[in-house]
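Deviation from plan, reported transparently: zinc ion complex.
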Amino acid sequence: MLALIDSHTHFDDISFDADRDEAYQRARAAGVEAQVLAAVSARLWPKLKAVAASYPGLYPSYGLHPVWLAEHCPEHLDRLADWLTQERPVAIGECGLDYYLADLDPDLQTEYFVGQLRLARQHDLPVVIHARHAVDHVVKLVRRFAGVRGMVHSFSGSADQARRLLDLGILPSFGGPLTYPRATRLRGLIRYLPLDGFMLETDSPDQPTSAHPGQRNEPAFLAEVLACVAELRGVDPAEIAVATTDNARRLFDLPDAASPGPH
Ligand SMILES: [Zn+2]
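Because the crystal trials were delayed, the predicted structure below was used instead.
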């Protein structure tokens, strides 16, 4: 049985409220032994905490997502600092920049992102980054915080941008979009990334794979992302599973499945 880590989910999302136990069991049955839960706004941190505490192998991160900009206020950065100290999550996030949605003020997004990069350095935690049409600016800001490690989830940039992120200690992560044949650039990119340079994710309930278009995504479908990556690279899925699980364990400092940690 392959041991997989879904490096980015929103398993606390309301769309799982009716069948979270079953979705969790399906994920375990598909080999997904850990998930890193990404937060969106301070209002929802308590629910994320409760969901993560309810199942083995669910690891929380806390942060202020750029798409939820209207919900944030400067005081939430202070509250985030308290949560990091008290809860000791595995990461800060989801944070970052979204230049695709026109109604999100870029300067305000940058303030919250920089605030979270600063906290990442202070608390020595990795960052979970959302970068939509904004990878260059993300690279520029992360460079100002040398030593801060992390991931860009659902990476959709170029090979050159991926290389620049890897040089900074930021791993790209790939999910459902890769499974669509029209994603030629992404599918070309995944063939050549070093084995220690990427992770797998579902971004559940968003970004379903090509086998489930328009449906709610769930962590169990990570196996389809794995199969796609293995096929594109022409290797055994086990090789990709071992490497990407290792990469996620290292980045988030997760315990081995065989020796459960404090979570
Ligand atoms: Zn997300």
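The longest strand covers residues 91-98. We consider this an acceptable substitute for the interim report.
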